[in-house]
Design a protein that fits this description.
Layout: H1 3-25, H2 30-45, E1 49-54, E2 63-66, E3 84-92, E4 95-104, H3 110-187, H4 193-213, H5 223-238, E5 241-245, H6 255-276, E6 280-288, E7 291-298, H7 309-320, E8 324-329, E9 335-342
Parallel strand pairs: 5-6
Antiparallel strand pairs: 1-2, 1-4, 3-4, 6-7, 7-9, 8-9
Length: about 350
């Protein structure tokens, strides 16, 4: 072998090892690095065809490097010499994640076979990594769809329960109050005042419960309108002043996204008043890229020792949808919540922080 040929061969081997190193370290585009490794392996070994065939085609495409020989197409060479085939299974643990096949019109040198075996181990690691990533991605999408379906069903159940409460117990209480009012007017001695107050208190409690359980979209409102209605209801019932900054919201959002954001705000505001005696709060909502970003700040007192069950439940669901929820206390008092809800099924996975 001439010096030039030896330098070329050593250069190809160095390039092959470098490409394989990048492949294993995941510092490069994996499929592109796989293709580069296969092409360099074909050049180093002199094989007419090198084919990487994954066990899971959806994760890794079939990659083939040809040197123009008819042997790579399974035909005989011009002198009718049968092509030499070397097939190496790509193993990762107990699993076969693919195969590496070399086809040559002449015998492969032992050094070339050993080189192919070493590269096959690296290719197996890369193919296993891509396969696992594909499976995890598919499982993540399935999980988010399952959570979204659960939220939709929960909101539908809330709507049915709210309808039953409105058409049943609430109407009965309204009728009872009407009868008590008429009877009180007829008697004029105040003997029915306690009964009337009891009915009125029951009516207030029933309406409050109806508000808590009914979906925000029950009246066909957009999220901004639903949050505005929530703020007005809280101001009238418990005196909480809610400032809204939601003008940039689109009129339509995916139902699961709108429901999740609304429920998070609702649970946070309830916690602010019930647990920390807040008197005012600020709610902002906007779309940033593929995320709906919602924040809630309040002027409550005390620290957030633990997250209430209702808020914790919605935080977990938003996380399973691919978003994240951060909740922390503020210096000088008050609390801060920031939620990011993905607008699509492909939202990134985030770590929940408190």
């Amino acid at each position: 072998m001439t010096t030039a040929a030896r330098e070329t061969s050593l250069g190809d081997v160095a390039a092959l090892l470098h490409a394989a190193q990048l492949l294993v370290s995941s510092r490069a585009d994996t499929v592109g690095a796989l293709r580069e490794v296969v092409e360099i392996l074909s050049r180093v070994t002199g094989a007419d065809s090198v084919v990487l065939r994954p066990a899971l085609p959806g994760a890794v495409p079939v990659i083939e490097a040809l040197r123009g020989s008819t042997a790579s197409r399974g035909e005989g060479s011009p002198d009718d010499t049968a092509p030499v085939r070397l097939t190496l299974p790509l193993r990762y643990g107990d699993d076969v994640v693919g195969s590496l096949a070399l086809v040559s019109t002449g015998p492969l040198a032992v050094a070339h076979e050993q080189c192919a075996a070493v590269v096959a181990d690296m290719l197996a690691l890369a193919c296993a990594n891509l396969t696992l990533r594909a499976r995890l991605s598919s499982a993540s999408v399935d999980r988010r769809r399952l959570v979204a379906h659960f939220i939709e069903e929960a909101e539908r159940d809330r709507a049915e329960l709210a309808g039953a409460l409105h058409d049943g117990a609430l109407q009965s209480l309204v009728a009872a109050r009407y009868v008590a009012d008429i009877a009180g007017i007829a008697v004029h001695d105040g003997s029915l005042d306690d009964a009337r107050r009891g009915v009125q208190d029951g009516l207030v409690d029933a309406r409050r419960a109806l508000w808590q359980i009914r979906p925000h979209a029950a009246d066909g409102q957009d999220l901004a309108g639903a949050l505005d209605a929530l703020g007005r209801q809280l101001a009238e019932s418990i005196g909480l002043r809610v400032e809204l900054m939601v003008d940039a919201l689109p009129l339509t959002l995916p139902p699961v996204v709108a429901s999740s954001a609304f429920r998070l705000v609702q649970e946070m505001l309830r916690t602010s008043v019930r647990d920390r005696a807040a008197t005012s709060a600020t709610v902002t909502a906007d779309v940033a890229g593929e995320m709906l970003v919602v924040t809630v700040t309040d002027d409550g007192v005390g620290q957030l020792v633990e997250v209430p069950p209702g808020l914790a439940r919605w935080r977990e669901w938003v996380t399973l949808l691919g978003g994240d929820v951060r909740l922390r206390g503020k210096r000088g008092g008050g609390a801060y919540l920031r939620a990011r809800v993905p607008m699509t099924d492909g939202g990134p996975e985030e770590v929940v922080q408190q």
